């Protein structure tokens, strides 16, 4: 009986692993075909434009903050290691008073802006995170830049988030990096990033597709994590 239960768990885990991998491969296919303009949604026929990122939105850096000023509560303070393309971890903070002072000096990301990892490992540099809420946050200077896409009339931050995942822009970021152990994607090459884009309406339609894919991927990842924890519990509690 115990062997049957564990075997059944393994079968379900394998099923979700396959579905998760299939969805990730599907996302890669859509990224390639849509951003190469081989596939387009019905009703959209206008030609895409190409501009440098700085022609579409302002790019901002932030102040460097000594680790002696980091706290465990207050306004979230994000380093490159605290974010990825799907989520963020608010592990560190700065005081509200310090945030208010720095926000007046340099500004801070707002809802609709795009965070861009500008310092870290070769794998992480150039990845982006779309800020979709109104929460206050400050980012580490030199490690995270942000594009003020919330105030752009030409480009949508979420669309850019997905475009930065394409092979074309990943290659651009890789070719533009400096440094050896710690890689950097500085404000100059970030500003010159060659963005190819359609109308705002088509951008938002494309973003909606990838949002749906990301939600499905997150759902299957959560299911897989739960099943693996369940199997672990069975193994710890059934063999006593």
Task: Characterize the structure shown.
- With 240 residues, the protein is α+β, with helices and mostly antiparallel strands.
- Helices cover 45% and strands 14% of the residues.
- It has seven helices and eleven strands.
- The strands form four sheets. A four-stranded antiparallel sheet has the order 2-9-5-7. Strands 4-3-8 form a three-stranded mixed sheet. A two-stranded antiparallel sheet has the order 1-11.
- α1 runs antiparallel to α7.
- The longest helix has 38 residues.
- It is globular, with a radius of gyration of 21 Å.
- The two termini are 15 Å apart.
Which secondary structure elements does this structure contain, and how are they paired or packed?
Layout: H1 2-35, E1 49-52, H2 53-56, E2 59-60, E3 75-78, E4 93-94, H3 96-106, E5 114-117, E6 119-120, E7 128-130, E8 138-139, E9 144-147, H4 157-163, H5 167-176, E10 183-184, H6 187-191, E11 194-197, H7 200-237
Parallel strand pairs: 3-8
Antiparallel strand pairs: 1-11, 2-9, 3-4, 5-7, 5-9, 6-10
Helix pairs in contact: 1-7
Features:
240 residues, alpha+beta, 3-stranded mixed β-sheet, 11 strands, 45% helix, globular
Brief rundown of the structure:
With 240 residues, this protein is α+β, with helices and mostly antiparallel strands. The chain contains seven helices and eleven strands. It has a four-stranded antiparallel beta sheet.
